[in-house]
């Protein structure tokens, strides 16, 4: 679909009368338009999930491959009747525990759900967001919303309205600005269409949390590895293509903390000596250990903290924002420390590895 340039409006939901932005956004969605909305995870690019033409506009605005399925966002459990052919007990239990919240469930779809929304699959991915703006808009519009992240495909997901504007200005009708999001990474995706629940994308809701509710849960091995099968059809967003990538080339260095700092310092110094500008992603505990000389143009390395290892939530919350800040700093190469792959660290590493195109050095 050819994109038609338009004037993108921004409505501040904290300052504007609620009835005004609800009416405006609802009207755009009813007419098949696109609205960027805040959720508790990242900003989403919303359209009527049951309108195949509207869904196609999402793919066009993002430059998203058509086999990459969209997640349908709902406001209440009653909406499931029009989306899925069956609601197994595992889905009911997970909904009771984690909805509204950052968990997406994949289930067999009803014929009414267009293949343009599901990426050609006979399953549909559904979640019930907890962000009040998203919930109010879905409920008041009476529309189930397909809403992938509101960024250009392959770029870091947006956690602020200005990130959306940077990528989507002129491509969508409206941005609802409610300030920075809370969690900062996309929802956990669990496939319930098979015999055993399978996590296809890690997120804030961890494997251990899901197992407490439904018992055995498996994790797709592709979460922390690269799928090189060109014929592979992704069952969930983020499984097949390079995602979340900054403009600079990203490399992850893992291993003992002291050796990681030494290796990043060595690599960054080499690139700086060659005239490039480098960026380094560390934590509150480590950024003071990096001492990189200026390059030949007098540019210092952009050394940024992603958060503290004492609080995993700070790292996931800041991940996409720091990748966008690296773009703003104009760095050519980025070197990032690795993060624990247990609990929510797995979700961070899943995103970082995809952003780096799985370029990683292990220093032991």
Which percent range fits the helix content?
A: 25-40%
Order of helices and strands: EHEEHEHEHEHEHEEEHEEHEEHEHE
How many distinct helices? 10
The percent range for strand residues is: 15-25%
- Kindly report the spatial arrangement of strands forming the biggest sheet: 1-8-2-3-7-4-6-5-9-10-11
Overall average residue pLDDT = 93
Note down, in words, how this protein is organized.
This protein is α/β, with parallel strands linked by helices and 364 residues long. The protein is built from ten helices and 16 strands. Strand 10 (198-201), helix 7 and strand 11 form a beta-alpha-beta unit.
Fold topology:
Layout: E1 9-12, H1 18-30, E2 35-37, E3 44-48, H2 52-62, E4 71-73, H3 89-98, E5 103-108, H4 115-118, E6 123-127, H5 132-141, E7 145-146, H6 161-168, E8 174-177, E9 188-191, E10 198-201, H7 207-214, E11 218-219, E12 249-254, H8 257-273, E13 278-282, E14 302-305, H9 312-329, E15 333-337, H10 345-355, E16 360-362
Parallel strand pairs: 1-8, 2-8, 4-6, 5-9, 10-11, 12-15, 12-16, 13-14, 13-15
Antiparallel strand pairs: 2-3, 3-7, 4-7, 5-6, 9-10
